[in-house]
Design a protein that fits this description.
It is a single chain. With 174 residues, this protein is mostly helical. It has one domain. The protein is 79% helix and 0% strand.
């Protein structure tokens, strides 16, 4: 779990920093951030699965990696064909963010009930943050500024929570 948390904390921190410090808040930036998050999660998770002695649960790496790969593949095929500026494109972007965040959150929630050797409370905290964010992105109507603002807030909050989780004394598995 430590490896997956490190991967997600670094990925989320980089995404949050870019969103916070960039002046461009457009649908294209949102599409690029989704592609970055999905690709980094997929490739990082697949790379971690190739390490022979890693003790992270395969479920914790495989499901988010497959969801990230599917979203990245979908994003490349749809968005590189031309990102529109209409409300349907914004809605699609919000739903994809919600699916990406929700899939990771549900994976961690299920793992907190199945693998009691892991940090159960931290998994549930992370899953709770993710489920709330996924619900916001899926059901709350927002414009692009609010969408990217909430995304950067979620990424920053999740990265900090994961960093504190990794730094705290407790059960740790590679």
């Amino acid at each position: 779990m430590l490896s997956a948390n490190l991967l997600r904390a670094l990925t989320y921190a980089a995404g949050a920093a870019y969103l916070i410090f960039t002046q461009n808040h457009s649908l294209i930036l949102g599409a690029n951030i989704i592609l970055y998050l999905a690709t980094a999660t997929a490739l990082g998770g697949f790379a971690l699965m190739m390490i022979p002695n890693i003790q992270t649960s395969l479920r914790n790496l495989l499901v988010p990696s497959m969801v990230g790969f599917a979203i990245a593949l979908f994003g490349v095929t749809v968005w590189f064909g031309g990102v529109g500026t209409d409300s349907r494109t914004l809605w699609l972007e919000q739903v994809l963010i919600g699916i990406f965040i929700g899939a990771i959150a549900l994976t961690e929630l299920v793992q907190s009930f199945i693998d009691l050797d892991e940090d159960v409370l931290e998994l549930r905290i992370s899953a709770g943050i993710g489920i709330i964010a996924a619900l916001v992105f899926t059901f709350v109507p927002m414009d692009i500024i609010n969408t990217l603002g909430f995304l950067s807030a979620y990424l920053a909050l999740s990265a900090v929570q994961r960093a504190i989780w990794m730094a705290s004394a407790g059960k740790k598995t590679a």
